[in-house]
Automatic annotation (TrEMBL):
Protein name: Transcription elongation factor GreA
NCBIfam families for this protein: greA, PRK00226.1-2, PRK00226.1-4, PRK00226.1-5
GO terms for biological process, alphabetical: DNA-templated transcription elongation; regulation of DNA-templated transcription elongation
Annotated Transcription elongation factor GreA/GreB C-terminal domain residues: 82-155
Stretches assigned to the Transcription elongation factor GreA/GreB N-terminal domain: 4-73
PANTHER family with a match to the protein in the record: TRANSCRIPTION ELONGATION FACTOR GREA
PROSITE patterns cross-referenced by the UniProt entry: GREAB_1, GREAB_2
Function, as annotated: Necessary for efficient RNA polymerase transcription elongation past template-encoded arresting sites. The arresting sites in DNA have the property of trapping a certain fraction of elongating RNA polymerases that pass through, resulting in locked ternary complexes. Cleavage of the nascent transcript by cleavage factors such as GreA or GreB allows the resumption of elongation from the new 3'terminus. GreA releases sequences of 2 to 3 nucleotides.
Alphabetical UniProt keywords: DNA-binding, Transcription, Transcription regulation
GO molecular function, one term: DNA binding
């Protein structure tokens, strides 16, 4: 099964993967070699620490490769602007009651980072917004009750 991912999200994972393979792997291999030269491996803390770090890096490499192989990369900038909200778009919404405006980009689950304004496509707000257009008022069910948001602008960034 393929999972949606923005072009920026895929590029960030590819950059991290390249760093892990070309920088971290050789550093850890060197650290293990140096620790082996120190003698008895049973009581060699440097060796065990390097091996543990190696395991974590290799696990992260496998994780990233798996995510990229199952990703359906969507480049929202290549899609014609229609004013509709869909995966990858950046949406400015305003709370109808308070006029408080926020901007969110709808991204894949692995990319979501609320502090950066990136919300998961499966989040309640994103699910409510998808398919709607600029100017629509959208009710969103929250723990505190239903909140209505007006879609101010939809951007393809």
């Amino acid at each position: 099964m393929k999972y949606p991912m923005t072009k920026q999200g895929a590029e960030a994972l590819e950059t991290e993967l390249k760093h892990l393979k070309s920088v971290m792997r050789p550093q850890i291999t060197q650290a293990i070699a140096e620790a082996r030269e120190l003698g008895d491996l049973k009581e060699n803390a440097e060796y065990h620490a390097a091996r543990e770090q190696q395991g974590m890096v290799e696990a992260r490499i496998r994780d990233i490769e798996g995510r990229l192989s199952n990703a359906q990369v969507i480049d929202v900038t290549a899609i014609a602007h229609t004013g509709k909200v869909f995966f990858g778009t950046t949406v400015e919404i305003a709370n109808v009651d308070t006029d408080e405006a926020v901007v969110y980009q709808i991204v894949g689950e692995d990319e979501a980072e609320i502090k950066e304004g990136k919300i998961s496509v499966s989040s309640p707000i994103a699910r409510a917004l998808i398919g709607k257009e600029e100017g629509d008022v959208v009710p969103v069910r929250t723990p505190g009750g239903v909140v209505e948001y007006e879609i101010i602008e939809v951007r393809h960034q």
